[in-house]
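REQUEST FORM: STRUCTURE PREDICTION
Request ID: SP-0412
Submitted by: Lab K.M.
Chain count: 1
Length (residues): 328
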Amino acid sequence: MNSSPQQAAEAPHPCGICGNSSGNRVHEAREMMFGLRDRFRYLECGRCGCVALMDIPPDMGRYYPPDYYSLQKHGRVAEYLRRRWAAYAYGRFCVFGWAFSKFCFPNEAVRSVRRLNPAPDWRILDVGCGSGNLLRDLQYLGFKNLAGVDPFIARDLHYPGGLTIYKRELSELKGEYDLIMLHHSFEHMNAPLKVIQTLKSMLRPRGTIILRIPVASSLAWKSCGVNWFNMDPPRHFFLHTGESIQMLAEQSGLCVRRVIQEDDGGIFVVSEAYRKDIPANDPRFPLSTNLKKILSYFKMGEYRRKGRELSRAGQSDLVCFELGHRGD
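STATUS: Completed
RESULT:
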C-alpha cells in the first residue's frame, strides 16, 4: 500500500462532520499495529479535511486485545520511572525525568495538565484512560478528585486513595468536572458531535476540556498517506483537523481556547515501516524490542529537532486542543 492522499479516488459521500460532498476522496488503509492487515475505507473531506472511517466493524473488541498499549498495567519499576518522568513534566526536578525528557521525549500528557495550573482539589475525569496510568501519576502529584472511564477494560478498576476507573460508556457516567481529558481517545469515538455535547454537559463553569489527538492537517498525513502510523485503522474513527474541531466546538456551544502543537518527529520512521509492509508486532519493526527502543532513543535528538520544526510550522501530527464554555 504505497498510495498517498493525492492518489485516492474522488467520492460523493458526505462528510460526517460538515456534510460536504464536493471534492471528497476515499482511501483504503490496513490494520498494521497487530499485523491483521484487514482493509478499511476512509473518507477525506474536501472542505474541512477530516478523514473518517466509513464502515465501522461490528466487533471492535477484536481490535483492542489485552496487550493493547493503554490497557496494560505497569510493573513497580516502570511505574516508579514513569512517575519520575511525570514529576519532571510538572516542574519538579529529578534526574531520570530530566534525562528522559531531554534525550527521548517530553511527557506531553502531564504538560497539558500543568499548563492549566489546576488546584489539587479540581475534579478531573480522564475519558478513554485504559488502565489509568496517567491518573495514577496525577494522584502521585497530589490530585485528590480523580476518575476515569473506558469501555474496553475488563472490569471496573479500584486503586488506593479512592481512584476508580469505570468500565462503561461516557454517556453512562454522571457528574461535573473542572477538567475533562481525552488523551488520544477522541479519535476512537464514533459520533464526535454527540461526544462533545456530552462533555459540555459534564463541564463545570470555567472548566476545560483537553483533546490531544493526531490530526490530518499534518505533514505526516500529506506525505505518508495510508501508511501514516497514527491513522491506525480501524481504531481511529476520525482523524480531525483544526477546522473540524472548530466546527464541533461551535455546534456544541463551546469555544477553542488554545491550540498547542506537540513534537513527534519520529513518526516518519515508524510510518516508513508500514510502507514496507512491516507491522508494529513484526521483529523488523523499528521499536519491536526493548533493545531497539533503547537504541532508538539515541536518535531521538534528531527526531525531536524534526518534530520542533513541524511544530513551529503548524504541521505536527499530534495537537492539543483546549475547549471551554463560551464567555468563560
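NOTES: The first strand starts at residue 9 and ends at 10.
Reviewed by: T.R.
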